[in-house]
Amino acid sequence: MAPGLRSLPLTDLSEDETMFRDQVRAFALQEVRPLVRKMDEESKIPRELIDKCFALGIMGVEIPEKHGGAEATFFMSILVVEELARVDPSLAVLVDVQNTLVNNCLLKWGNEDQHTRYFPKLASSWVGAYALSEAGSGSDAFALACRATDKGDHYSLTGRKLWITNAAEAELFIVLATVDPSKGYKGITAFLVERSFPGFSVGKKEDKLGIRASSTCELILEDCRVPKANVLGALGQGYKIAIETLNEGRIGIGAQMAGLAAGALEYGLGYAKERQQFGKPIAEFQAVQFLLAELATEIEAARLLVYNAARRRDIGASFVKESAMAKLFASRMAEHVSSKVIEIYGGYGFTREYPVEKYFRDQKVGQIYEGTTNMQLLVIAKQLLGKL
Ligand SMILES: Cc1cc2nc3c(=O)[nH]c(=O)nc-3n(C[C@H](O)[C@H](O)[C@H](O)COP(=O)(O)OP(=O)(O)OC[C@H]3O[C@@H](n4cnc5c(N)ncnc54)[C@H](O)[C@@H]3O)c2cc1C
Description:
Layout: H1 15-32, H2 36-42, H3 47-56, H4 74-87, H5 89-109, H6 112-124, E1 128-131, E2 147-150, E3 154-165, E4 172-178, E5 188-194, E6 200-205, E7 216-227, E8 231-232, H7 238-274, E9 276-277, E10 280-281, H8 286-315, H9 320-345, H10 356-363, H11 373-385
Parallel strand pairs: 1-4
Antiparallel strand pairs: 2-3, 3-7, 4-5, 5-8, 6-7, 9-10
The structure holds flavin-adenine dinucleotide.
Flavin-adenine dinucleotide binds near residues 371 and 372.
């Protein structure tokens, strides 16, 4: 192996990574866990908790230090998402969207002026959101209808976006719209839209099965005035920006699912040692032991896929196939693990008195957002087969 290349196992963390992970783990256990149930019931993440995330430096993991961020790696944001998701997948996705979609996209495609205007805010107090989907365009994202019209000194955006994570809290939205529908996907352009821009409003909030504390809302753009300086990347480059951002973002969803499953299994292990049947803890039955062993193995496999994709991304190696595989596998794994942990709890697991039913509800979206399971399979197949 060439000198300087890491030969460590994927899951071995550097000193910095370990420190960062441990800080987030402590924060999740001490500050987040006591609020999880209330946040789920009230469908809301309190602003004070979001402020604590900013204070901890986990809302600007990759933002350069000169703009107030931690200037750390993408892998570090993956560790943050995983740790938060063990305790609360809703807070995890808020932080995930901020780092792996919004900051990441701005870092790669934004110019110096945009970095100077927005990074200090995104590192200190502004939540961000990423708005691609619409009512009529989900998997077929580039069939979007939101229109951007050149008005000389600014663009006027008109249309609606659906399913936008963080919309209730966000101050900055990356909005994909077309400057010329006749050009198809080549007309799609990314815009930086502030919540306060005239013509912009946040509409209905979805009442969801899981990740209930995470806000998911409609965006309404009615002749929304966006300065030309807020075009992100070049005109017509939006489809490339959207695809490349989601290729990275879905590693974050893999991490969310790996963390969620690990959190569920921790409860399962604890319960199996406590619950007595036939005069002994159910953990003493080999069937239960084997189930726990299977689940732990699945989680480890998912974590390896996620870490590998993230580390490949950080060293500039290809990662499109690996990121799709990580999300595909981790989201299916989380469904299986969270379901089986409910069975370990027996009837109690089926009630809201115990924390495991929430993991089961929260995991389902992992197979839907940032590309459904079928879309991940499509990406993987394309990488395997090349152009037919
Ligand atoms: C909680 C939540 C948060 C979200 N957050 C965001 C966000 O922050 N920003 C954002 O832009 N979007 C967001 N989304 C939207 C999400 O990305 C879409 O829901 C997703 O891309 C699927 O689109 P759809 O819901 O329109 O389903 P559809 O595209 O209608 O898919 C329905 C079914 O058809 C299948 N299907 C569709 N096309 C094909 C095909 N060609 N081959 C095989 N199967 C196919 C799909 O796999 C799926 O099973 C969020 C969604 C949810 C539920």
